[in-house]
Amino acid sequence: MYTTKVTEQQKKQRSNLRRRCRDRVKRGAALLDRERPGWEGKMDISKFDIWEPNRCILGQVFMNGQFGSRHNTSGYSRGLIALKFAGGDDSEDEDVTEEKAAHYGFTIGLKDEYEIDGAGIYMETVWEWLAVYWIREIEIRRQHERT
Fold first, then answer.
1. Which residues touch 17 (CB under 8 Å, ≥6 apart)?
2. Of the chain's two ends, which shows fewer C-beta atoms within 10 Å, N or C?
3. Average pLDDT in the chain
4. Predicted TM-score (pTM) of this structure
5. d(CA 96, CA 101)
6. Is the backbone of residue 48 left (phi > 0), alpha (psi -120 to 50) or beta?
7. Radius of gyration of the chain from Cα atoms?
8. Where are the domains of the chain?
Protein backbone atom coordinates (compact mmCIF):
# COMPACT_ATOMS: atom_id res chain seq x y z
CA MET A 1 0.00 0.00 0.00
CA TYR A 2 1.31 3.40 -0.97
CA THR A 3 1.17 6.07 1.72
CA THR A 4 2.21 9.67 1.71
CA LYS A 5 3.58 11.36 4.76
CA VAL A 6 1.22 14.14 5.83
CA THR A 7 2.95 17.25 7.09
CA GLU A 8 1.71 19.29 10.03
CA GLN A 9 0.90 22.08 7.58
CA GLN A 10 -1.28 19.71 5.54
CA LYS A 11 -3.04 18.48 8.69
CA LYS A 12 -3.83 22.07 9.60
CA GLN A 13 -5.08 22.82 6.07
CA ARG A 14 -7.30 19.72 6.13
CA SER A 15 -8.74 20.69 9.48
CA ASN A 16 -9.44 24.24 8.25
CA LEU A 17 -11.09 22.97 5.06
CA ARG A 18 -13.26 20.54 7.01
CA ARG A 19 -14.32 23.28 9.45
CA ARG A 20 -15.12 25.62 6.55
CA CYS A 21 -17.23 22.92 4.90
CA ARG A 22 -19.20 22.49 8.12
CA ASP A 23 -19.64 26.25 8.54
CA ARG A 24 -20.71 26.73 4.92
CA VAL A 25 -23.30 23.98 5.14
CA LYS A 26 -24.69 25.50 8.34
CA ARG A 27 -24.89 28.85 6.54
CA GLY A 28 -26.60 27.21 3.54
CA ALA A 29 -29.09 25.37 5.75
CA ALA A 30 -29.94 28.64 7.54
CA LEU A 31 -30.43 30.33 4.15
CA LEU A 32 -32.81 27.59 3.06
CA ASP A 33 -34.62 27.85 6.41
CA ARG A 34 -35.30 31.51 5.60
CA GLU A 35 -35.97 31.21 1.88
CA ARG A 36 -37.60 27.76 1.68
CA PRO A 37 -38.98 26.82 5.12
CA GLY A 38 -39.48 23.08 5.38
CA TRP A 39 -36.87 22.37 2.71
CA GLU A 40 -35.61 19.35 4.66
CA GLY A 41 -38.99 17.68 4.08
CA LYS A 42 -38.37 17.71 0.33
CA MET A 43 -35.10 15.84 0.72
CA ASP A 44 -34.96 12.14 -0.05
CA ILE A 45 -31.69 11.11 1.55
CA SER A 46 -31.79 7.75 -0.26
CA LYS A 47 -31.57 9.69 -3.55
CA PHE A 48 -29.21 12.39 -2.28
CA ASP A 49 -26.10 12.74 -4.45
CA ILE A 50 -24.06 15.88 -3.89
CA TRP A 51 -22.53 15.51 -7.38
CA GLU A 52 -25.79 15.24 -9.33
CA PRO A 53 -27.57 18.53 -10.12
CA ASN A 54 -31.07 17.10 -9.67
CA ARG A 55 -30.28 15.03 -6.58
CA CYS A 56 -28.09 17.46 -4.62
CA ILE A 57 -29.56 19.82 -2.00
CA LEU A 58 -30.67 22.51 -4.44
CA GLY A 59 -31.63 19.88 -6.98
CA GLN A 60 -34.09 18.18 -4.68
CA VAL A 61 -35.45 21.34 -3.08
CA PHE A 62 -36.08 23.11 -6.38
CA MET A 63 -37.05 20.19 -8.67
CA ASN A 64 -40.23 19.44 -6.70
CA GLY A 65 -39.52 15.71 -6.68
CA GLN A 66 -39.13 15.41 -10.46
CA PHE A 67 -35.88 13.48 -10.93
CA GLY A 68 -36.18 12.84 -14.65
CA SER A 69 -33.84 14.39 -17.19
CA ARG A 70 -36.69 15.75 -19.31
CA HIS A 71 -36.21 19.23 -17.84
CA ASN A 72 -33.86 21.62 -19.58
CA THR A 73 -32.84 23.30 -16.33
CA SER A 74 -31.47 21.28 -13.42
CA GLY A 75 -32.77 21.72 -9.91
CA TYR A 76 -29.34 23.00 -8.96
CA SER A 77 -29.58 25.75 -11.60
CA ARG A 78 -33.15 26.56 -10.61
CA GLY A 79 -31.98 26.88 -7.01
CA LEU A 80 -29.17 29.24 -7.98
CA ILE A 81 -31.69 31.44 -9.76
CA ALA A 82 -34.31 31.27 -7.00
CA LEU A 83 -31.71 32.19 -4.36
CA LYS A 84 -30.49 35.02 -6.60
CA PHE A 85 -27.00 33.59 -7.01
CA ALA A 86 -27.56 33.64 -10.78
CA GLY A 87 -29.75 35.78 -12.99
CA GLY A 88 -31.08 33.03 -15.20
CA ASP A 89 -30.03 34.84 -18.35
CA ASP A 90 -26.30 34.02 -18.36
CA SER A 91 -25.59 37.67 -17.51
CA GLU A 92 -23.51 36.77 -14.49
CA ASP A 93 -20.03 35.31 -14.57
CA GLU A 94 -20.24 31.56 -13.87
CA ASP A 95 -17.23 31.74 -11.52
CA VAL A 96 -18.96 34.40 -9.40
CA THR A 97 -22.13 32.30 -9.26
CA GLU A 98 -20.21 29.20 -8.16
CA GLU A 99 -18.34 31.16 -5.47
CA LYS A 100 -21.69 32.37 -4.09
CA ALA A 101 -22.96 28.79 -4.05
CA ALA A 102 -19.74 27.61 -2.38
CA HIS A 103 -20.18 30.23 0.35
CA TYR A 104 -23.34 28.35 1.37
CA GLY A 105 -21.95 24.82 0.98
CA PHE A 106 -23.81 23.92 -2.20
CA THR A 107 -20.58 23.31 -4.14
CA ILE A 108 -16.80 23.58 -3.86
CA GLY A 109 -15.40 27.01 -4.65
CA LEU A 110 -12.67 27.64 -7.17
CA LYS A 111 -10.46 29.07 -4.43
CA ASP A 112 -10.84 25.82 -2.50
CA GLU A 113 -9.27 23.82 -5.30
CA TYR A 114 -5.87 25.38 -4.65
CA GLU A 115 -6.10 24.64 -0.95
CA ILE A 116 -7.21 21.09 -1.61
CA ASP A 117 -4.03 20.49 -3.62
CA GLY A 118 -1.91 22.03 -0.86
CA ALA A 119 -3.57 19.88 1.80
CA GLY A 120 -2.70 16.72 -0.10
CA ILE A 121 -6.27 15.42 -0.34
CA TYR A 122 -8.60 14.57 -3.16
CA MET A 123 -11.39 16.92 -4.17
CA GLU A 124 -13.80 14.01 -3.73
CA THR A 125 -12.96 14.03 -0.01
CA VAL A 126 -14.16 17.62 0.32
CA TRP A 127 -17.36 16.77 -1.59
CA GLU A 128 -17.88 13.89 0.85
CA TRP A 129 -17.45 16.24 3.81
CA LEU A 130 -20.10 18.55 2.35
CA ALA A 131 -22.47 15.62 1.84
CA VAL A 132 -22.00 14.38 5.41
CA TYR A 133 -22.62 17.83 6.86
CA TRP A 134 -25.75 18.31 4.72
CA ILE A 135 -27.16 14.98 5.89
CA ARG A 136 -26.49 16.06 9.49
CA GLU A 137 -28.35 19.33 8.95
CA ILE A 138 -31.32 17.49 7.44
CA GLU A 139 -31.40 15.04 10.33
CA ILE A 140 -31.15 17.83 12.93
CA ARG A 141 -34.13 19.61 11.39
CA ARG A 142 -36.16 16.44 11.13
CA GLN A 143 -35.40 15.64 14.76
CA HIS A 144 -36.64 19.10 15.80
CA GLU A 145 -39.85 18.55 13.82
CA ARG A 146 -40.55 15.39 15.82
CA THR A 147 -40.07 17.04 19.20
1. 112, 115, 116, 119, 121, 126, 129
2. N
3. 84
4. 0.84
5. 9
6. beta
7. 16
8. 8-146
CA gap 99, 103 in Å, rounded: 6
Q: DSSP per residue over 60-114, as a string?
A: HHHHTT--SS--SS-HHHHHHHHTTSS-SSS-S-HHHHHHHHHHTTSS--HHHHH
The CA distance from 32 to 121, in Å, is 29
Top pLDDT among 110 and 91 is at 110
SS3 content of the chain, % helix, strand, coil (to 5): 65, 0, 35
Contact 79, 106 (CB under 8 A): yes
Q: Is 125 exposed, middle or buried (0-12, 13-18, 19+ CB in 10 A)?
A: middle
